[in-house]
Design a protein that fits this description.
Helix content of chain A: 25-40%
Radius of gyration of chain A: 46 Å
Radius of gyration of chain B: 16 Å
CATH superfamily of the largest domain in chain A: Endonuclease/exonuclease/phosphatase
CATH topology of the largest domain in chain A: Deoxyribonuclease I, Chain A
Strand content of chain A: 15-25%
Largest sheet of chain A: 7 strands, antiparallel
Pfam families (chain B): Ras
EC number (chain B): 3.6.5.2
Shape of chain A: elongated
Subcellular location (chain B): Cytoplasmic vesicle membrane; Cytoplasmic vesicle, Phagosome membrane; Endosome membrane
CATH class of the largest domain in chain A: Alpha Beta
Strand order of the largest sheet of chain B: 2-3-1-4-5-6
Helix content of chain B: 25-40%
Organism (chain B): Pygocentrus nattereri
Number of helices of chain B: 7
Number of strands of chain A: 29
Largest interface: A-B, 50 and 40 residues
Oligomer: heterodimer
Largest sheet of chain B: 6 strands, mixed
Shape of chain B: globular
Structural class of chain B: alpha/beta
Membrane topology (chain B): Lipid-anchor
Distance between the termini of chain B: 38 Å
CATH architecture of the largest domain in chain A: 4-Layer Sandwich
């Protein structure tokens, strides 16, 4: 049951409970159940802690107690406490820290908890990523007022790590609490998901320290980091490599495994189990003790809750070999089938990856009256699976038993630490130990004959009638499993409290129901026997001592192997950094001219081992990846291994970039950064020499130049242009020309050659001719302008367009718009222009009026000329709208019509 | 048994004049090799190497920068996010040593405030061509309170030591600040990683 649904009901719109987990809150005087929900609201996260009655189904079952906002100061650490017996594979204990508070929780063991933690972790990483922007948590305010905090969780010093006392009775407003508290436990137990986990919680809650004779051992005291998903691939690679090279750093060492199985027929322990569990001369290294029919009551069947679990566990703990200290690593139970797993204290730290699972094969093939429980763990470097099974009863049902075995094998699935890996089956383990009441009987012999054979200790003959032996010989069940020689009399069925065979009406045929089998390499059986002295049940317990060769890690060689692997992975990673080679990293463009298209090719070749994405990126504080006169085409792309791509570096100086280059304030210089995604950056240097041009130079500067611009030293041009900007109204124009000679050359040329030219200013010129005209103007060669009339006309337009300050300077633009309708005022404005601008304006308008006299030939009229020239002479410093455009045209028309009437 | 492949990620940066041997220093550390042909680094390159310090596996991501003067303004933009900077000069090149104070100023202006710095006098195998006394290197290092090693990428002198010492200093600083919550450190370092990748975009 997903309890986040209940939490969701208590939340506002836009808030989502992503995942919830039921857990135990650790208090000074014990633990209390809580519901933890991870709640999200527009990328902000918080943990909501709820008190709850029973398993929460609706919003009314939960009461908000505390909110833990996930911010920078938030941390969650997995801990195992020193004072408590550390049990590997047990519940996850967490310490949550935020602000100055610390809270400890115990989360049930399993994948749901891991999922929960990884979600929390992700939420926290989100916060970190957005650094330095910190979450505001405004949406939590409403809750903080209403949060019921019975004696709220007081802040506590970090060192104590525990929460101060809280009065349970104080949680007065949870309805009908007394009642609830009781029903709590039973409904809790009944919940389907992980019934065995609950029993574990109980074990822990109730003074396990007394039960297990071990108090100081800690597996790992230090805080463990939660595994971070983003580096998973490398982890997997390392694990893979380690596995491949396992032989290099492991050696086989024998360990003794004591395996016991006991069908206790629902009885409570009445006698010491020492004669069974402590029968070996030396204390075994590990114990795996299985019980069947622990409890035959209906209650355990329906609620999976039984006091017998405690009683038998206590009996086992007390019956273990007295010469060593053992830690209970795991207890797993399904109804009456229970498996206990103990290890010697000194081996505990070598147990890892502990998982426990159960499979019911009873009524309807699912219920827990029959079936199996199992644990899997890694001991040193070997994976071990231990199964305790109780298979179907009755003599004739051996096929059913075979089926149970197959069901258990296929349905017993252990989760893996890495949730992306598929679950492990029993048979995936290199060592499988299988014990239990397998219920196989003796076939085809009369009861008296059987008893007679037993009397004669002719176990060989008897064994030939054993169903399990026969089924195994036929390879119908337990394929590849081994069993030791049976040299003890059948363990079933006795009169309770005696060693006498069953005297009841049914008078069962004795059988070796209780068996221990194994599968794997390097396993030797030291003993296989029953324990007749125990009379509690109608079965006798059986034990087997196995010496198992376990792969143990040689730390030194492990370290060496790991280092080798890490080194080779580093190498691999370095080799996989995207890499390209460039045909050139420096580009020089010589003698670049105005409006001259220049291009060079940069070839990228992917010489790396991976495909790569490349892109020209911006430098810090710059608006684009390159200067406005440059473009790279394409500026980004994708390149497969071994492929090449040509990038055109195109240079073009237009009217907006020309002025600063003409004046020498800027050079043709840039450095491009070519970035490879997840790889290196290349710096590509671009340089060039620009040939100054009258295009893009100011009227003022040009009026000062009596020689062609390219005959002037750059220094002079720079000084002139600086003067132009600082002393616009300077009267110091004695030496200056009235108008730029370049303008005169073009206008005079047109006046003389093109007055009657049809469609003048209407037809485009030729690009090549423009270049000749430009060169002529800038170098003074040849003496007369080359090119057609249309080309010269276009050059004139370009010239006017490229003026950094238009003929009517920007500062007059607004005035022009205000008085465009009054001819007089328009002329007033012109009279106020700087001298050289005024000259140019008058010169151009005079020329245009001349053209209009020939309108019969050149087909020009006032409208056309106003449209063309107003846009060039009267420019807006900002974007111009259509209304403004009309006004400038009307303004200009005053000067065209002037003398025609 | 180690479950994680590394705990921390440190971003380190090599800076210094062109030709002092930054790329060779990195190449020696990452590949344990040396190449005598000089190819000027035109841009920013990096390599990774995983080292183990104090039981923690640390991934070092080491960025090698172009030393040429014309690239200085650009390379300074890569200082951000570096947790450690190795400032290299050439003991046979006086100019490269004179420029150290300029580089230190650069660090001050452009790098994180708490960046760990280290001074390396490279090419110490070329004793007969030495123009910068070891004492001078030591002096400027102590004036700025930073560690100093004379190294040789060619003869493999002090290269690994320099990197490991720098990483240790960073680790000490990092664990001092974030103490018990190694998870926090981890996340922060991975954030830094993202940030410095972000810069490249």
């Amino acid at each position: 049951m997903d309890q986040s649904v209940a939490i969701q009901e208590t939340l506002d719109d836009g808030e989502n409970c992503l995942i919830a987990v039921q857990c135990l809150l650790l208090l000074d005087n014990g633990t209390e159940s809580r519901l933890l929900g991870l709640v999200e609201h527009i990328k902000e996260h918080a943990l909501f802690m709820f008190m709850h009655r029973r398993m929460a189904i609706t919003g009314s079952d939960v009461t908000l107690q505390k909110i833990i906002p996930i911010s920078y100061d938030f941390s969650v650490v997995e801990v195992s406490s020193p004072e408590e017996l550390a049990v590997v594979g047990a519940d996850t204990r967490l310490r949550v820290t935020f602000l100055n508070e610390e809270i400890e929780f115990k989360l049930p063991f399993g994948s749901h908890t891991r999922l929960f933690l990884s979600e929390v972790n992700r939420a926290w990483c989100d916060v970190c990523e957005q650094y330095p922007k910190s979450p505001k948590f405004d949406w939590l305010t409403k809750y903080q007022k209403s949060a019921k905090e019975p004696g709220s969780l007081p802040s506590i010093a970090a060192s104590t790590g525990k929460i101060a006392k809280r009065e349970r009775s104080h949680s007065a407003d949870t309805r009908g609490h007394k009642e609830d508290k009781h029903t709590n436990s039973s409904t809790d137990k009944a919940r389907g998901e992980g019934a065995h986990e609950n029993s574990q919680e109980r074990v822990k809650g109730e003074g396990r320290n007394e039960l297990v004779r071990l108090s100081t051992h800690t597996v790992s005291n230090k805080a463990q980091m939660l595994t971070m998903p983003q580096f998973g691939l490398r982890d997997t690679l390392i694990k893979c490599e380690l596995l491949k090279n396992e032989d290099a750093y492991t050696y086989i060492e024998n360990f003794s495994f004591f395996l016991g199985t006991y069908n206790v027929n629902g009885q409570t322990p009445k006698e010491s189990l020492r004669s069974w569990l402590g029968c070996t001369p030396q204390p075994p290294d590990l114990y795996c003790i299985g019980f069947q029919e622990l409890d035959l009551s209906k209650e355990v069947f329906f609620f999976n809750d039984t006091p017998k679990e405690q009683e038998w566990m206590k009996a086992v703990s007390e019956g273990l070999h007295s010469d060593a200290k053992y830690a209970l690593v795991k207890l797993v139970r399904l109804v009456g089938i229970m498996l206990l797993f103990y290890v010697k204290k000194e081996h505990a730290e070598h147990i890892s990856d502990m998982e426990a699972e159960t499979v019911g094969t009873g009524i309807m093939g699912r219920m827990g009256n029959k079936g199996a429980v199992a644990v899997r763990f890694r001991f040193h470097n070997s994976d071990v699976c231990v199964v305790n099974a109780h298979l179907a009863a009755h003599v004739e049902e051996y096929e059913r038993r075979n089926q149970d075995y197959r069901d258990i094998c296929s349905r017993m699935l252990f989760r893996q630490l890495d949730p992306t890996l598929s679950p492990l089956t029993i048979m995936k383990h290199s060592i499988v130990l299988w014990l239990g009441d397998l219920n196989y009987r003796i076939s085809d012999l009369e009861v008296d004959h059987v008893k007679d054979l037993i009397m004669k200790k002719d176990f060989e003959t008897l064994h030939n009638h054993d169903q399990l032996k026969r089924q195994m010989d036929e390879e119908a069940v337990f394929v590849d499993f081994l069993e030791g020689e049976i040299e003890f009399q059948p363990t079933y069925k006795y009169d309770m409290g005696s060693d006498k065979w069953d005297t009841s009406e049914k008078c069962r045929v004795p059988a070796w129901c209780d068996r221990i089998l194994w599968k794997g390499k390097n396993i030797t059986q030291r003993h296989y026997r029953s324990h007749m002295t125990l009379r509690t049940s109608d079965h006798k317990p059986v034990s087997s001592l196995l010496e198992i060769g376990i792969k143990v890690v040689n730390e030194e060689s492990y370290k060496r192997t790991l280092e080798d692997i890490v080194r080779s992975l580093d190498k691999l990673e370095n080799e996989c950094i995207p890499s390209v080679c460039l045909s050139k990293s420096e580009f020089h463009f010589k003698d670049v001219k105005f409006m001259q298209h220049r291009a060079e090719t940069l070839t990228l070749h992917n010489d790396g081992q991976v495909p790569c994405k490349f892109e020209f990126i911006k430098k810090l504080d710059e608006p684009a990846y390159c200067k406005p006169w440059l473009t790279a085409n394409p500026s980004r792309g994708f390149l497969a291994q071994g492929d090449s791509v040509d990038i055109d570096l195109e240079l073009f100086v237009n009217r907006s970039t020309a002025p600063e280059l003409n004046s020498g304030q800027q050079q043709l210089e840039d450095i491009l950064i070519l970035h490879l995604e997840r790889g290196k950056d290349f710096f590509i240097s671009i340089s060039g020499s620009y040939l100054s041009s009258c295009f893009g130079s100011s009227i003022h500067t040009l009026c000062q130049l009596k020689e062609p611009i390219q005959d002037m030293p750059l220094e002079t041009i720079r000084e002139l242009s600086l003067m132009a900007t600082s002393e616009t109204n300077s009267p110091d124009t004695e030496k200056a020309l009235d108008i730029p000679k370049e303008l005169w050359m073009m206008v005079d040329h047109l006046y003389r050659n093109a007055s009657k030219q049809e469609d003048l200013f209407q037809q485009p010129g030729l690009r090549s001719e423009f270049e000749e005209i430009r060169d002529c103007l800038d170098t003074g060669m040849p003496d007369t302008l080359p090119g057609s009339n249309h080309s010269v006309a276009e050059a004139l337009l370009l010239f006017l367009d490229a003026l950094p300050e238009p003929v009517i300077p920007f500062s007059f633009y607004q005035q022009c718009l205000e008085c465009y309708f009054t001819s007089g005022q328009c002329k007033m404005i012109i009279s106020m222009l700087p001298q050289c601008h005024k000259n140019v304006f008058n010169y151009v308008t005079a020329f245009l009026r001349e053209l209009l006299k020939n309108s019969a030939h050149n087909r020009l009229d006032v409208n056309i000329l106003a449209t063309v020239f107003a846009a060039l002479l009267i420019r807006s410093p900002t974007k111009q709208d259509i209304m403004e455009k009309r006004k400038t045209q009307e303004f200009f028309q005053h000067f065209l019509v002037q003398e025609t009437h | 048994m180690a479950k994680k492949t590394y705990d921390l990620l440190f971003k380190l940066l090599l800076i210094g004049d062109s030709g002092v041997g930054k790329t060779c220093v990195l190449f020696r550390f990452s590949d344990d090799a040396f190449n005598t042909t000089f190819i000027s680094t035109i841009g920013i390159d990096f390599k990774i190497k995983t080292v183990e310090l104090q039981g923690k596996r640390i991934k070092l991501q080491i960025w090698d920068t172009a030393g040429q003067e014309r690239f200085h303004t650009i390379t300074t933009s890569y200082y951000r996010g570096a947790m450690g900077i190795l400032l290299v000069y050439d003991i046979t090149n006086a100019k490269s040593f004179e420029n150290i104070s300029k580089w230190l100023r650069n660090i001050e202006e452009h790098a994180n405030e708490d960046v760990e710095r280290m001074l390396l006098g490279n090419k110490c195998d070329m004793e007969d061509m030495r123009v910068v006394l070891k004492a001078k290197g030591e002096q400027i290092a102590s004036e700025h309170n930073i560690r100093f090693f004379e190294t040789s990428a060619k003869a493999n002198i002090n290269i690994e030591k320099a990197f490991l010492t720098l990483a240790e200093d960073i680790l000490r600083k990092v664990s001092h600040v974030y103490g018990k919550y190694s998870i926090l450190v981890y996340c922060i370092s991975s954030t830094v990683y993202k940030t410095c990748c972000g810069l490249m975009k």
